[in-house]
Archaeosine biosynthesis radical SAM protein RaSEA
Amino acid sequence: MSKPSPEVYETGRGMDAHNSVMRDIRSEKQKHYDPHQPTRVWIDEDNTPNGVYQSLTIILNTGGCRWARAGGCTMCGYVAESVEGGTVAHDALMDQIDVCLEHEAENTDEECGLIKIYTSGSFLDEREVPAETRAAIAETFSDRERMVVESLPDFVSEAKLADFTQHDIDTDVAVGLETATDRVRHDCVNKYFDFSDFEAACAEADAAGAGVKAYLLMKPPFLSEPEALEDMISSIKRCADVSGCHTVSMNPCNVQRYTMVDELFFRGGYRPPWLWSVAHALKETADSDAIVVSDPVGHGSDRGAHNCGECDDLVQKAIKDFNLRQDETVFEQVSCECETTWELVIEAETSYNMPLVR
Ligand code: SF4
Ligand SMILES: [Zn+2]
């Protein structure tokens, strides 16, 4: 059984059995990346409390998530994209930012108003991104209007966020909460923190004049489709009620390689959510006190959220429209015969007979 060295992984948290299985699965992956290159960078459009912005999304290569090295979340394959050795030095991280700025200059005439930085871990964890680098990145983007940085709730503090807010950048922390239900987060996702930690992070962000974007996971493993849908609707509502949490991003679970979800999927024990479930959750929460968006990765494929194959692109397009307009009537324009099958699944699937339909 693989065993990472104690200085690079968290101990005593989460479920030991999940961690042990995930460590073994992840150890099958041997791929190394250049610490001077970002994992990925692209330009897109995003809906924010100040309207729709052109955005530059940066996936910084920071050595990967420490929690993932402990075993980590059952659906997450991101550690596969980390660099060897566990940490990336300040200069190399700043080289990655330069590569991203070049990408922006080459691909758009206008500077993006919104910069989003993800790390496949926690940007605010100083073992991943040193304080010096955080301050330098805030300085680099001080002329932009909005920034989003990704972090687990434990690392969110008013002082760290002040690096950004002191430049008058509207700042948000993206928190991978996954679900508002502690039992589902612990037992299905294998994340170690509680909803109360998320609430505390929101309070820290609020104190710094920053906001929080909650990332929720639609249909973690071990939940049936109706259980997942119910959990998602109540999670969105609970997040929207927390002061400081102004946006909820619902991510349908997709089957990533080298994860527990992948093992279940391979043996016929997991089906990613139906796009009808995603649409239904958006409709049911459209009047909540937060922007609710969703971007189903790999939609229409077996490994991503999908319906019957005929209507997937149409439903995905309606979801994209909803993201920008927050108007649930976009879903009135899509229909398909497979909705009847989905209704049956919602009525009849239980955790001992799932997936009822693949
Ligand atoms: S989902 Fe986030 S916290 Fe969990 S293992 Fe992946 S990167 Fe780490
Ligand atoms: Zn269909």
Summary: Residues 90-107 form the longest helix (18 residues). The CA atoms of residues 38 and 61 lie 5 Å apart. Residues 6-348 form a domain with the TIM Barrel fold (CATH 3.20.20.70).
